[in-house]
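Re-running Large ribosomal subunit protein uL24 to confirm reproducibility after the cluster update. Everything else is unchanged from the original entry.
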Amino acid sequence: MAAKFKIKKGDLVQVITGAKQERGGDRGKQGKVLKVFPETNRVLVEGVNTVTKHTKVGQSQRGTKTGGIETVEAPLHISNVAVVDPETKKPTRVGYRTETVERDGRERTVRIRVAKSSGKDL
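Result of re-run:
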């Protein structure tokens, strides 16, 4: 069974480990989560951990050339990123708050994700 994570697709996250940006690394960069891979405990973050990929040159149906050298994002381990607080724009931990909501005449308990540092909803 795959693990359950507090980081979801669409979250704004910041890289908290690795080489500093001055040395060509990604620590401190922020980006949106494009995809979460629960099987391998990894996340794909927009604009972070870019690698050059060589793809075979071919032709599409219309005759345009495809392939060559592309830069694409590679997955990062989920422990190397943290969710960004919407108020302070700094990395924070994620907590949960439960609320009872009345929907369609029935009361339901809903878990809402909250930033630990400021208490704002994520």
